[in-house]
Amino acid sequence: MRKKVIRIAGSRKPKKEFRYEKTNIEWADFTLNLWWGCTKVSDGCDNCYAEKGAKFRFKKYPIWGLGTPRRKISGSFDKLKNLQDEAAAKRVIYRVFVGSMMDIFEKSMDLIDNKGKRLQQTTGELRDKLFTNISGGKYENLMFMFLTKRPSNINKMIPDEWKINPPVNVFFGTSPVSKATAFNFIEHLLKVKGKKFLSVEPLLERISLWPWLKDNLIDFVIVGGESGGERRPFDSEWGRVIMDECAASNTPFFMKQIDKVKSIPYELRIRERPVAVYGCAATNCGAVNDVSYQALNPKPKK
Ligand code: SF4
């Protein structure tokens, strides 16, 4: 993972440096996790990389499953403040993917620190703090992409005012991976107000999103197959079906990967992202850092 160092202004040799991680999730600019740990809830979780990483790193303090606490990730709010300051200085908007090692809409759980000590705080309190900060306009240059496999919890956990007037810099997303999860997850997501996206990965069978895309109910779609040693098969045709439906409904489509071993077929090399324009007071910018993926990965000459 690439690391970036921000030097605190005001001294040539700063005593203090803040480090944060650029994300390797290509459809976002940065990743944010307030805690680490979760419980599996769908077929899409079977090979959860966050669980594998946690089992490897925290053998002494289990953080997966219903009966365990979650591990607080310290410095998350400092990271956000620094990202906001940097984005404001550059007059851009960063896309922040929330929840690669956790599910922000999991029910509230106890927390431990990195030495296994029980903390007074809960995950629900961290989530509320983040939402309060967003409501208070602290992150005008950050576009939050909240991804959950528990879309039925969103309306129970967001602030009441978001149910009427959701913040302009928030997207709510869920991860259907099959026909069954598509109908279940998307129907719950549609009960939420505001901008919505689908991260359809790992896609496990051919599905159609047309029932929702045809009426422009979804603002952004990501598709990908599974990676890693236990990856399940992915057929490029499944990706083409959704890509065509997105084109027909004018919905941004982002093809993430086949399996990280095979390259993406040329015609599927589409990486669109929603344009981050929301007229924020600080920047009035229309930050677009999209690239033409096909242009960067041209078709090989015969
Ligand atoms: S919801 Fe996400 S983080 Fe939680 S177990 Fe499933 S894949 Fe892993």
Verbal overview:
With 302 residues, this protein is of the alpha/beta class. It has a single domain (18-278), classed as Alpha-Beta Barrel (TIM Barrel), CATH 3.20.20. 26% of the residues lie in helices and 21% in strands. It contains nine helices and 15 strands. The chain has helices at 49-57, 76-90, 123-135, 154-157, 160-164, 179-189, 210-213, 236-249, 293-296, and strands spanning 3-7, 17-21, 30-32, 35-36, 70-72, 94-98, 110-112, 118-122, 142-148, 170-174, 195-200, 220-224, 253-257, 276-277, 286-287. It has a seven-stranded parallel β-sheet with strand order 3-6-9-10-11-12-13. Strand 7 and strand 8 form a beta hairpin. The protein binds iron/sulfur cluster.
Q: What descriptive keywords fit this protein?
A:
302 residues, alpha/beta, TIM Barrel, seven-stranded parallel β-sheet, 15 strands, binds iron/sulfur cluster
Low-confidence stretches: 1-20, 279-293
CATH architecture: Alpha-Beta Barrel
The termini sit apart by 35 Å
Report strand order across the widest sheet. Answer: 3-6-9-10-11-12-13
Query: What's the SSE pattern?
Result: EEEEHEHEEEHEHHEHEHEHEEEH
Which value, in Å, is the CA radius of gyration?
19 Å
Helix content: 25-40%
List the helices and strands and how they pair.
Blueprint: E1 3-7, E2 17-21, E3 30-32, E4 35-36, H1 49-57, E5 70-72, H2 76-90, E6 94-98, E7 110-112, E8 118-122, H3 123-135, E9 142-148, H4 154-157, H5 160-164, E10 170-174, H6 179-189, E11 195-200, H7 210-213, E12 220-224, H8 236-249, E13 253-257, E14 276-277, E15 286-287, H9 293-296
Parallel strand pairs: 3-6, 5-7, 6-9, 9-10, 10-11, 11-12, 12-13
Antiparallel strand pairs: 1-2, 4-5, 7-8, 14-15
The structure holds iron/sulfur cluster.
